[in-house]
Design brief:
heterodimer; A: 7 helices; B: 187 residues; mainly alpha; 7 helices
Amino acid sequence: MTIDAAIADLKGRTLPRLPGDIARLVYLAATRDYNTGRYYHDGLAHLYTEEIAGRALEECHSDIFRRLVHSSIEDLLVQIETYVNSGCGQAGEVIDFWEKMEPYRIAIPLASDPLSAQLFNSNLKIALAILRCRVNNPRSSSPAASLRP
Amino acid sequence: MIIGLLSVVIGVLLLGFLFHWAIGGGSSAVDEELSPIGGSQALHLDLPSAELIERILDPRDLDFVSKESTRETVRLFERERRALAISWLQQTRRQVVRLMRYHVGAVRQNANFRPAPEIKLALHYVRFLIAYELVRALFYAQSPFQVRPLVAYVTLVTERICGVSDKLLGELSAAAGAPPHGTSGGS
């Protein structure tokens, strides 16, 4: 049982079920222990080992993060819209909370370089500002006009 | 005319500083740590990638934000991008300076020193320092998106410095019978 098999398992079964890369990032960050920074996943650890499962989660977390860092703000906005529309809450409520608490900061992998983390936070901040603008102005022709305020 | 003259003066001053540094003006502590003949480990540079600065200064983002948001958000966006670009530039400079200190420390103790390629490397370094100061000043003076061609030049010169230094240190190590010392990192 190698780490590659565990990564393939995650990428082939668990992650595609989640709606978009923001949901995947949040999910993977949530498998990380807040105190130790170690990743845990019972199902995966049962199939492989705890160590392999942890490394596979960490690897996938870094992959998704890299993909989001290198996305344009337009693409990132689509990802956030997909996440908000997936039923995690009312759009206005989610945007309010994300703007105030910036929970996306703790979704960043530990191994990422500080500049990439800074770029990700900045892009999220800008994308949320645009989304707020769209939610407050639902007549906008943009796709986000369908967001529930 | 005045700008040209000023550039020449700055270039000469920098060359003088570099020469002084190369012949013994630098820190001796650095020499002890970095001499390849002394068997020190290869230097692992943590250069921020060229891909990252291209992403930071991607004009498509500026177009999109300008089209889709308020003036306030556009201003926030430009402010954030400027801060990111400056961080990238400063990190690049720190790593290049680290590399040059390593290089000078290594070359100073090597009998197989060849002046011509070392001068070529010194010129690349002077180019880098001038471009760095210019880009940094322009980042503060105007929109960072307008400075993209110069940022690309900084990236190019950084790659050349890494390439030339790697080659020279490899040759020196081979001549001294030691394994080659790779110096370049993440770029």
